[in-house]
Amino acid sequence: MPPSVPTYAFMMIDLAILPLYLTTIIALLLIPGPDMLLIASSSLSYGKKVGIFASLGNATSGLILTLLAAMGVSALIAMNPMALQVLRILGGSYLMKMGWDCMRSGPADTPEITQQSGLAKVLYRRAAFCCLLNPKALLFFVLFLPQFVSPQLTATSGEQMLALGLLLNVMGLLFNLLLVLMVGTLGKSLLKNDKFRANQNKFMGMIFFALAILLLGSQVQAMG
């Protein structure tokens, strides 16, 4: 009779630490951050459809960062101060450009509620790049996921980090979609307000400028 194989041999996440991991994720999701600000403001300014695409863009970047962390690529980048500085500058510059483009847009450039498919795709890309070009997001995956890698499992650290990251991204996407539903519903009346619609691009421009200042501000602190 062949020897029994331990159940944990087929596990990618240690069930003993799973409750702590889930609790930590929930606590992190409830802390307001740049991603939440971008998704909430997109939903408020342009409606739930755009907010959903922004959430999907954020989830896409999360999956990419998870893969990089699992392969060890992100750890190599995180150990290179120059690479992190370049990422901060690129990310801040990208956000400044998005803010400038929004501020330059006039009321005539504001899309109608029924014609926002193109805008949804734009916000998808913007949300994805905002996260990918944020060194804090990269460092988060490098420093956070390994804490929950268990030596009790036969799965490699890379495989466990991949599973942990996928779970994190699924929970993050569900949370962001719930946020979109709540904020999008509250902002539905605003989208019918002519005065708000005339200034909604400027509102989004201010959001992007604020995100750029936060990102570039962290660059100044890191160099100080």
Question: Would you kindly provide a written description of the structure presented here, covering whatever features stand out?
Answer:
There is one protein chain. With 224 residues, the chain is mostly helical. The protein has 9 helices and no strands. It has a domain at 49-103 and 117-217. The chain is 74% helix and 0% strand. Helix 2 (34-46) runs antiparallel to helix 9 (194-223). It is globular. It is a multi-pass membrane protein. It holds the Pfam family LysE.
Task: Please supply descriptive tags for the structure shown above.
single chain, 224 residues, mainly alpha, 9 helices, globular, disordered N terminus, amino acid transmembrane transporter activity, LeuE-type, membrane, transmembrane helix
Helix/strand-derived class?
Answer: mainly alpha
What is the string of helix and strand elements?
A: HHHHHHHHH
Number of helices: 9
Q: Note the beta-strand portion.
A: under 5%
Low-confidence spans: 1-9, 108-114
How much is the radius of gyration in Å? 20 Å
Major sheet: none
Round the mean pLDDT to the nearest integer and report it.
76
Say how many strands there are: 0
User: What gap, in angstroms, lies between the N and C termini?
Assistant: 66 Å
* Global morphology: globular
The amount of helix comes to over 70%
Subcellular location: Cell membrane
Membrane topology: Multi-pass membrane protein
Organism: Shewanella psychrophila
Transmembrane segments: 7-31, 51-78, 127-149, 161-183, 203-222
List the helices and strands and how they pair.
Elements: H1 18-29, H2 34-46, H3 48-71, H4 73-78, H5 81-104, H6 117-132, H7 135-144, H8 157-186, H9 194-223
